[in-house]
Amino acid sequence: MVPSQFGLASHQTESSFLEPILNDAACLHFTLFTTRVYIDSIRGKTQISKTALSHLVTSLAILRKRLACDDAAQVISDSTILVVVGLTIAATALGDLETAVQHLQGLHKMVMLRGGISSLRWNKTLQTKIFRADIGVAVNKGCKPMFFTNEVPWDAYIPSRRETSTLTVSDAGTEATDPQTSVLDLAQFLDSLDIRLRRIWDDLFEFSRAANIALPCKLGVDPELYQEVMVSIHYRLINLGFDMGSINETIRLTLLAYASTLFLQWGNVYNRYELLARRLSESLYRLQHHTTALPIQLTLWIYIVSAVSVFDDHEQALLQPTLTEVICDMRLKTWRHVNLSLKSIIWVDSLHDQRAKKIVQASLPEL
Questions:
Q1: Most exposed: 29, 138, 218, 276, by fewest CB within 10 Å?
Q2: What is the dihedral angle through the alpha carbons of 142, 147, 150, 153, rounded to the nearest 10 degrees?
Q3: Distance between CA 48 and CA 96 in Å, rounded?
Q4: At what angle do helices 313-329 and 349-363 cross, to 10 degrees?
């Protein structure tokens, strides 16, 4: 469940990957269900086929029978947890959020019976899948996550090359100060953000910079780093929150949308986060009164990231006149000029260029 461009190499051996599928009937049928749905989606089919549904029904029947038995070890086994994780992620991707929440609540109970999420630290792959399911529901529902809710570490995860501010989270306090004055310099503007948000920005910048170096060389991205950055960034972004329409909140929502393109997409299948899109659209509408407080290249980046990550065709069409105006104000004449501006912020060429180029060319057909 990652963008194929990252070329992640799994640390799992073939036997460890196949073991739950071969030894657990519920896991086998759920795997067949997801495989069928994925193949159908690539072929352009939007409806779940009868074949896929039959595997899902069989998997659920086996799971219900297992959960009703008295074998506690089987109820909270790795393979059972893996099936519930898969059901949660699948329900989220299919837009059935109420079912996804029910699965997540059951998953949380299972993990607590195992001794908590830390008890799974020796099975990093399973632990990360649980976090991914939790994050997916939180982003789609706009709710707090069920795991990793206490004492969220706010420090940057990846060492930054920029000079680190001596200001700490405790120094900044819990009351966030929103940038209000005109700041034309990008670095100056970023330093004016809430420090927790700035550190998330730095992590995404460093990760994207590393990806831009590694991917053209066919090196891929280290899977362990990828998973840990995904968890760290999303739990911090989800647990933050500012006044709607404020600059801090607009940046938070944009970073969440940007991060979804890096960490939450399923292979080549595009998943739209409707609640995030609505909130980002509302925040951008309110922000129009504060655009003088933003460096213009950042305004361009916010609009294009929103369009690339979560906006549908209708929302992109509504954004187009404003996007055209910003591009003209910046006197950008070609896609290459726009692309260079985007890369000066946060950008992964192989992941974002194709969709962004179409959006820009639709805004200025003569490019």
A1: 218
A2: -90
A3: 13
A4: 80
State the Cα–Cα distance between residues 237 and 253, nearest whole angstrom: 8
58 by Cβ neighbours in 10 Å (0-12 / 13-18 / 19+) ranks as middle
Rounded CA gap, 32 and 91, in Å?
Answer: 16
**Of 271, 283, 282, nearest to 136 (Cα)?**
271
Structure tokens at 365: 């057909």
* Alpha-helical segments (H) within the chain: 14-23, 25-42, 50-67, 72-75, 78-93, 97-113, 124-141, 169-172, 186-191, 195-214, 223-239, 247-263, 274-287, 296-309, 313-329, 335-343, 349-363
d(CA 101, CA 87) in angstroms, rounded, equals 10
- Rounded to an integer, what distance in angstroms lies between the CA atom of residue 148 and that of residue 133? 12
pLDDT of residue 74: 87
Give the separation between CA 70 and CA 222, rounded to whole angstroms.
41
With H, G, I as helix, E, B as strand and everything else as coil, classify residue 243: coil
Q: How far apart are CA 337 and CA 185, in angstroms?
A: 19
Residue 222: which residues within 8 A CB-CB, separation 6 or more? none
Single-letter residue type at 273? Y
Q: Work out the end-to-end distance of the chain between its first and last CA atoms, rounded to an integer number of angstroms.
A: 34
Please state, as a whole number, how many other Cβ atoms lie within 10 Å of the Cβ of residue 17. 12
Angle between helices 223-239 and 124-141 in degrees, nearest 10: 30
Specify the pTM.
0.87
Phi and psi for 10 in degrees, rounded to 5?
-75, 140
Mean pLDDT score of the chain: 85
pLDDT in tens, 12-30: 544 455 677 878 899 999 9
The Cα 353–Cα 216 span in angstroms is: 14
Tokens of 3: 């963008």
